[in-house]
């Protein structure tokens, strides 16, 4: 069956493959003060594959931020909860609340949104 929770290759991005693991990870997030970037993508999405190395690089650069990847085909209920209509969509979450969103494979906008959130942290 494979891992239900993994890190892809040498990436610092956590890939979540099951609803149970998502719920467990979400509860852990709620108990922390960390910014979490949720990468909603699909293995069949060209732009998702295009931006993946950039997301991995950001995860290595911003180690105080949690980067999580969700395949919308495997966890459609999670994508629906976050109102994801297009992939890739990046949802930035802090203390359980959405604090930013980037729709599309726009590396510059994603990095700027992450940096804005970092400047606002307490």
From TrEMBL:
PROSITE patterns reported in the protein's UniProt record: THIOREDOXIN_1, THIOREDOXIN_2
Domain of life: Eukaryota
InterPro entries for this protein: Thioredoxin-like_sf, Thioredoxin_CS, Thioredoxin_domain, Thioredoxin_H-type-like
Domain Thioredoxin: 3-119
SUPFAM superfamilies hit by this protein: Thioredoxin-like (SSF52833)
The protein's name: Thioredoxin
């Amino acid at each position: 069956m494979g891992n239900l929770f993994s890190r892809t290759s040498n990436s610092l991005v956590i890939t979540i493959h099951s609803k149970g693991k998502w719920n467990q990870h979400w509860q852990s997030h709620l108990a922390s003060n960390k910014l979490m970037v949720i990468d909603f993508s699909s293995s069949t999405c060209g732009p998702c594959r295009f931006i993946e190395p950039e997301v991995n690089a950001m995860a290595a650069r911003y180690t105080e931020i949690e980067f999580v990847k969700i395949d919308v085909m495997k966890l459609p209920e999670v994508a629906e909860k976050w109102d994801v209509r297009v992939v890739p969509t990046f949802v930035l979450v802090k203390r359980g609340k959405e604090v930013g969103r980037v729709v599309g494979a726009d590396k510059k906008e994603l990095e700027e949104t992450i940096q804005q959130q970092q400047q606002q942290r307490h």
